[in-house]
Design goal:
With about 70 residues, this protein is an all-beta fold. Helices cover about 0% and strands about 55% of the residues. Strands 1, 2, 3, 4 and 5 form a five-stranded antiparallel sheet that branches. It starts with a strand and ends in a 17-residue tail after the last strand.
Length: about 70
């Protein structure tokens, strides 16, 4: 599961999206992640993608960032 707007809004400029405040869930825990994506001019394919995984997000911060504590989707 990935929440692109967990700790800050996403930024969309032209065909470029930046999510510096995203979070992803793995094995019942949430982690910070930043990512950027650019689509091709025909908007049918990804031209560039980059990401950087950050630290684990403490469970005490999940509710404030609208991060689910429920079971993972399988």
């Amino acid at each position: 599961m990935l929440v692109a707007y967990a700790t800050s809004d996403i930024v969309l400029v032209g065909r470029n999206l930046r999510a510096d405040g995203a979070a992803f869930r793995s094995k019942g825990r949430w982690f910070n992640i930043k990512f950027g994506c650019a689509v091709a001019p025909d908007i049918k394919s990804v031209a560039a993608f980059e990401f950087q995984v950050g630290d684990e997000i403490p469970e005490s911060e999940w509710e404030a960032n609208f991060l689910s504590a429920g079971a993972e989707a399988h």
